[in-house]
Amino acid sequence: MLDKQRMDPAHYRDAMSRYAGHVQLVTTALGKERRGVTITAACSVSDDPATILICLNNSNAKNEIFFNSGIFALNALCAHHQKLADAFSGKTNLTNEERFAMGKFDTLVTGAPVLTDALAAFDCRVIEVKRASTHNIIFGEVVAVHFSETKPALLYMNRDYHTL
Measuring CA to CA, how many Å separate 23 from each of 7, 18, 37, 38, 163? Predict the structure, then answer.
């Protein structure tokens, strides 16, 4: 059980803002419906079998498609994808179709949208979902990967974009 004395969420977010994260676009599809969300909470779990995890906020009902589809693609963004990251983060008032029109997407094995010029894209089948407070942790078995040419990565730190 978690300690009932809680840290102030704003204070915690201020500390986490100093933690650099690779900006990524996680996407899924179910029938003709597609969804994409900009995240930094993703990482490798294992290389055998190849497994990654992503974290998605529970408060957005539109994220239910990730649980119902059983698939997702994790797309590592390049520095030139900053506007795309903003669009899928909700910073703009673009429709879902307008957001997807900002990039070129294809599919690999699962049918999840893969950004063709992502630094790397991991096409995954959902193998487990764990609820953790305000977020769901989604574990995915990587069934295919895609690489583009190496370009500077897009990072997020101190509430702003940076490149590496």
Answer: 26, 14, 10, 7, 10
Written as one letter, the residue type at 92 is T
Q: What are the pLDDT digits (tens) for 65-123?
A: 999 999 999 999 999 999 999 999 989 999 999 999 999 999 999 999 999 999 999 99
State both tokens at 62. 């539109």
pTM exceeding the 0.85 threshold for the entire prediction: yes
What letter does residue 109 receive in the DSSP assignment? S
Segment 83-99, tens digit of pLDDT: 999 999 989 999 999 99
Are the CB atoms for 70 and 125 separated by under 8 Å?
Answer: yes
In the chain, % helix, strand, coil (3-state, to 5) comes to 20, 45, 35
Question: For the stretch 30-61, what's the b/e string if a residue is b when 16 or more beta carbons lie within 10 angstroms of its beta carbon?
Answer: beeebbbbbbbebeeeeeeebbbbbbbeeeee
Q: Which of 133, 34, 141 is nearest to 88 (CA)?
A: 34
Q: How many separate helices (H) and strands (E) can be counted in the chain?
A: 4, 12
Q: Reduce the DSSP state of residue 141 to 3 states and report it.
A: strand
CA-nearest of 50, 76, 56 to 68 is 56
